[in-house]
Amino acid sequence: MHDLQVFDKEGNSLGVNDKITISFEMELDTRRPPRTGIKKLEKDENGHPKIAEQKPAYYGDGPSDNIIEKVK
Length: 72
Prior knowledge:
two-stranded antiparallel sheet; mainly beta; 0% helix
C-alpha cells in the first residue's frame, strides 16, 4: 500500500484513500480464434453447484488510452 503510486491524467498524485475512476478502450481481436474450454461454477435448477463450460469468447490485445480520474 505504501509503494503504490497513482497519478491522474493531469499528473496529480492520488492517495490510497482517494476514490478514482479508471477508463480505457479495448480492441476486440476477431482475427484469432475465440477462447474455448473455459469452465465456471454455477448453480443448477435445484441450487446445487455444477461445472459448466462458458461460451466461446473473443479477447482484445489489452487496454489502451487508459485514463485515471479522481471521483468528484
